[in-house]
Structures are given as structure tokens and as C-alpha cells.
Amino acid sequence: SVNAFPDIILxxxxxxxxxxxxxxxxxxxxxxxxxxxxxxxTYSALRSFGNMNxxxxxxxxxxxxxxxxxDFFVSHSWRDDSAIKWRKLTEIAENFMxxxxxxxxxxxxxxxxxxxNGDPTPALRALGVYIMSCDQMLVFCxxxxxxxxWCAWELFVMLAFQDEKQALARLDLVPxxxxxxxxxxxxxxxxxxxxxxxxxxxxxxxxxxxxLIDAVGRGEFNGKVRKLVRLYRRESxxxxxxxxxxxx
Length: 248
Known about the structure:
The protein is α/β, with parallel strands linked by helices. It has one domain. The chain contains 12 helices and 6 strands. A 6-stranded mixed beta sheet has the order 2-1-4-3-5-6. Helix 1 packs across helix 11 and helix 8 packs across helix 12 (218-241). It comes from Octactis speculum. This is TIR domain-containing protein.
């Protein structure tokens, strides 16, 4: 059931690390949530992920104000083209400004997490809290997105805390590529996602996440990610053509 997955995610985290109870994780995360304003994002900041000082990146974000929600949770691969990503992000921000009269706020790991000695893992124990604090999830689906285990995990966690209809309403898949074929190929890769082909930069993170995935079931994990993409494509077709596709 939809409510079973958060328990699995959090309980495995607690049992594997022996650090905090589920309640402590959620309470701590709720008081530490931050966002980054669009005005504090730049192309150079996105491009220099590996070179920017952790404190400098964190200083670009701010704590949430009382009663404030974050407009967009950004799920993306740092290995994908930063120039294309920045162009897409700028388009989204400008369209948001036209519709809402203000620029949006974002949650991005690089800027919003307090890294522990360069390791974001402790701060990501309550990833679900960060995701559910955002109104929408932006998925910048580039060529390497489906190969990054953290990216797939973010999609899975979003599904874990709500049903598919709710998740779909909050999801915005943004294909990334220099040409249309590259964008289509990136979505196709995610639609055929296989967790055995996804990795993490950190072997420690990969081992820990594989333990979580095994607790859920690899087939279940793959199926959730694939189905989300399939449903998104189906709904996008309906919105564009006023009917469902003849074949899916």
C-alpha cells in the first residue's frame, strides 16, 4: 500500500544507522528545511558543482518562513548538460513569474543540504519530508538521469508518500537534450528503468541505498519508476490531443 513504503524507508534507515528514531528524523528535518530563491541561482553555480565550496553553496539558500512551502523540488543528474538545464530552469522561472507575479523557490540538494564533512547522506535521511514540502517536482530528465540511483530514489520516495494520481499531479518531467531525439531517448531510458544499471558516485551511498531497495523489492522499485513515466506520457498526450493514445 502507499502508506507502507514510508515506514520501510524510514525504519531501514533507522535500523541501519542506529542514530535516530523515525520521529526524531522527521522532527529534525521539518525544522531544517531550506529553499533557494531563483535570484540566488546562476548558471555558474549549476556548472561548478564539483568546484564550489560547500559553505558557499549552502549560503545561497535560506530557511523556510512560517507557513511557506517550496515551489519546486528539483530532481536531476549533476552529470547532465548544465547549459541545457539552466535554459530549461530559466524558462520555468520566467513562466512562473508571468503566472504568479513572483519568481519561484527551489529545493536543490547542493544548496539546501547541510553537508556533514562533504557527505550529504545524513541530511538525506528524511528525503520524503523535503519532497512533500514542495508543491511540484521538476524532473530534468537528461541522458544520464536514469543511470543515477539518487534520481530514481527521489521519484520512488515521492510515490511512497502519496498515490499515483496525486504524484502525477505534482510531477513535471522536463526532457533534456540538444535535439528532440535526445529528449525522447532520455524519457525512453527512464520508461525502461532498471535499478541494476543505476549507480551512485559514492560506493557507501550505493550500498546503503541498495539495502533500502532490497527491503522494498527490486521489481517493485523498477515498476514504480517505469509506471510513473508511462502515466505521465499518457496524461501529457491526453492534455495535448484531448484523448488517450490508441496504443501505449
